[in-house]
Specification:
With about 725 residues, the chain is an alpha+beta fold. The protein contains 21 helices and 15 strands. The strands form three sheets. Strands 2, 3, 6, 7, 10, 11 and 12 form a seven-stranded antiparallel β-sheet that branches. The protein has a six-stranded antiparallel β-sheet with strand order 9-8-5-4-1-13, with no helix packed on it. A two-stranded antiparallel sheet has the order 14-15. α1 packs parallel to α5, α3 crosses α4 and α17 crosses α19.
Length: about 725
């Protein structure tokens, strides 16, 4: 029974020495001296803030993209025991001892290192020789810009890693299609393609470009499958559903999971809350939640409320009034109603409180049982402190003469009667009988007499002059078909009024709100709001010293100084390997010209290369040249501040195109032994130049050793490069 123990247990394994060696070299090139410099390097000042907020569980919004990349950087900080206590306010600031620099930079460095073996495997899966694949990997290994970008707490190396992983996974899946469809490995690589695409998009929205390329490639391959008569309709349907599940459904689910984890981690109120709705703010621990948790849910006649404008940008503000009146005449000579001012005030204040009154009754308290206000009901809004009614009439607003002035009505015994009836319209209602709810309902107030809509116009224009205390203008806007968020309001703080007497009511208005009913937003509601904010929130783009245009990237007419030592002159720059970038541009041009030549010749029924070589040429170009195009050309349509690092995903694909073109030239154009020998000699010389450039610029890639001014000047190969030289 134990006879099998008489023979030794032998395990055999195939090890690709090329792959192992490339991985080791990649790790050495990216991990060597990773803690140097122990100072904030360029955009580490930006991403470090978010890492600190993750460590402290404080909510934030970053309009640059989804949270997955930030979470990976924060994971490095968590593994290193970072407590989040560091002031990220200056590039070059020395890290304190509590900052685990090596741990924070580790994941980007590992991602950058693994791009080297991924490049090798992609070329192998494209059916190119191991020599060509080795060349592609070495070009990625010796690319100075990729080394620089992967050695710091930045996201581009992680993005490129997931992009290349997605491409490799799809190629492996596609190569298994003919002989191993629906096998375990087939499913593994198909699902991994979708997962890698989702991760790429989750790091930066630039990942969408490669995701769309792979979806288009998968669609084209499936189109060819439809024409295969050997496949039954049921088999085609299974293939279609498998691709839909792995390339669309799973990535969408994974993308949602990034936000779920993000929101689960960041449960505390923070400085970015104010751009979110009141409902979102109330779901966070601390901040608004301490005030609003458990308020009465349904707004009733007699409710005391504060009204926050939903737009919330460039700042949040609340409907407000005070005893001061509009001037009789404005600076431009126009007259006003001289009624009590109504504004939108960007701070919490007792003058933000209003009472919802039933026009048919005099009482300003909530009855028992409360009578809820519903969509379409007519109300009066009484200012809590001054007890004057919100009013609008056919008088031009102070800053927006085409809109109506909004005021609190004062009876001057002149021919200007009060017009203070407002219809409540719940914008996000589910039915026409919906009850007006605290925080959750987004409402519009339509003036009964003039059909004007209450609008915080000051959010998109100038503030009032000194007589209005620089507060924001509120107007009555003529009703239009659509609506703008500046016309929409929500109840933020709410209590049921109990005091009919004014003095008692003023005491009540100054007291904290009561806590009766708690409100919770669902994950999908929070995700939808946060996703919309990320897509629509735009910081003012300012011209940066190192910003550039997409045209500058092709010829590398620009660079970025990432770090400068305060005394020695040692510095780090984002600069590509000039020899590699020039070769990549040449390879792209050769590929385009040869493709056009072959297409013209094939149209004339002249076939210069075998059909299998043509298919290989087209498929490799679709991935490499297509990857370059989709990751580069969209930047010409973007209205944002651009930097050289935005080009790195595109140039990575372009570098992969170099060995594709070189092998094609060697196999199909160098047909004699002499030509092949000359071509090989040229390749050796060319690759030596790539290595020479890598070595020449390695001091400004790694930041050491520090070079004297004469050697720094020698590195300024282009006049447009900004190499920093200290004055002696």
């Amino acid at each position: 029974m134990l006879g099998f123990l008489k023979e030794p247990v032998v395990v055999t394994a195939k090890i690709n020495v090329n792959l192992v060696a490339l991985t080791v070299m990649g790790l050495m090139s990216r991990l060597w001296g990773l803690c140097y410099p122990r100072a904030v390097v360029f955009d580490e000042v930006y991403y470090g803030q978010f890492v600190s907020l993750y460590m402290k569980r404080i909510f934030f919004v970053d309009d640059s993209g989804p949270p997955f990349g930030h979470m990976l950087l924060a994971l490095g900080g968590y593994l290193g025991g970072f407590d989040g206590n560091f002031l990220w306010n200056r590039i070059g600031a020395e890290y304190s001892m509590n900052v685990p620099v090596w741990s924070l930079r580790l994941l980007p460095a590992l991602a950058g290192a693994l791009c080297v073996p991924l490049a090798y495997q992609i070329l192998v899966e494209l059916h190119f020789s191991h020599c060509a694949a080795l060349g592609a990997a070495l070009l990625i290994l010796l690319e100075n810009s990729l080394i620089t970008q992967s050695r710091f707490m930045l996201l581009e190396s992680i993005l490129i890693f997931f992009i290349l992983l997605a491409v490799l996974s799809y190629l492996k899946f596609y190569n298994l299609q003919k002989h191993s469809a629906f096998s375990g490995s087939w499913w593994f690589w198909l699902v991994l393609t979708g997962v890698a695409c989702s991760c790429a998009v989750g790091v930066k929205y630039m990942g969408l470009f490669t995701y769309m390329l792979l979806l288009a490639t998968a669609g084209l391959h499936f189109w060819h499958m439809i024409g295969d008569q050997n496949l039954s309709n049921v088999s085609l349907l299974c293939h279609f559903l498998a691709r839909g599940l792995a390339l669309i459904i799973i990535p969408m689910g994974l993308y949602l999971s990034f936000f779920y984890v993000h929101l689960a981690l960041l449960y505390r109120s923070g400085p970015h809350d104010q751009i979110m709705t009141s409902a979102f703010q109330a779901s966070l621990e601390g901040g608004l939640a301490r005030i609003t948790q458990g308020q009465p849910l349904e707004v009733a006649y007699g409710s005391q409320i504060t009204l926050r404008n939903v737009l919330g940008k460039p700042m949040q503000c609340w409907l407000h009034s005070h005893t001061n009146t509009y001037p009789i005449r404005y600076e431009n000579g126009r007259g006003s109603s001289h009624q009590q001012q109504v504004t939108c005030y960007p701070f919490k204040d007792v003058n933000n409180w209003w009472i919802v009154k039933d026009p048919g009754m005099q009482q300003l308290v909530v009855s028992n049982p409360p009578r809820p206000v519903r969509h379409g009901h007519i109300v009066q809004l009484v200012h809590g402190i001054t007890t004057r009614y919100l009013n609008t009439h056919d008088v031009a607003a102070p800053l927006s003469p085409h809109s109506q002035e909004v005021s609190c009505y004062i009876d001057y015994n002149i021919s200007m009667p009060a017009q203070n009836l407002w219809r409540v319209e719940i914008v996000n209602r589910e039915s026409d009988t919906d009850v007006w709810k605290t925080i959750l309902s987004e409402v519009r107030f339509v003036h009964v007499n003039t059909s004007a809509v209450l609008k915080a116009s000051g959010l998109s224009g100038a503030s009032l002059p000194e007589w209005g205390y620089r507060q924001l203008e509120v107007v009555g806007e003529k009703l239009s078909k659509g609506y703008h968020q500046s016309m929409v309001w929500n109840v933020e703080e709410h209590r049921y009024g109990k005091s009919q007497e004014q003095k008692e009511r003023e005491v009540e208005l100054h007291s904290p709100t009561q806590m009766d009913i708690s409100k919770n937003l669902s994950f999908m509601a929070k995700f939808t709001e946060l996703q919309w904010k990320i897509l629509t929130l735009k910081n003012e783009d300012t011209e940066h010293k190192y910003s550039s245009s997409a045209l500058d990237w092709i010829t590398m007419d620009t660079n970025i100084a990432y770090w400068l030592h305060p005394t020695s002159g040692a510095q780090i720059h984002l600069l590509g390997n000039v020899a590699t970038w020039a070769s990549a541009n040449t390879a792209a041009l050769v590929y385009l010209c040869l493709s056009l030549w072959y297409l013209l010749r094939r149209r004339r029924k002249i076939y210069d290369i075998p059909e299998d070589a043509w298919q290989l040429w087209v498929s490799a170009g679709g991935i490499c040249a297509g990857g370059w195009a989709v990751n580069y050309l969209p930047f010409f349509l973007m209205e944002k501040t651009l930097f050289l690092y935005h080009y790195l995903p595109a140039v990575t694909f372009q570098i992969l195109l170099i060995p594709v073109v070189l092998q094609h030239l060697s196999d199909h154009l160098c047909r004699s032994v002499l030509l092949k020998s000359m071509f090989s000699a040229l390749l050796v010389g060319w690759f030596s130049s790539v290595y020479f450039v890598y070595c020449t610029f390695s001091p400004v890639t790694y930041g050491q050793p520090a070079l004297p001014p004469t050697e720094l000047r020698a590195l300024r190969w282009k006049d447009t490069w900004n190499i920093l030289i200290r004055k002696q």
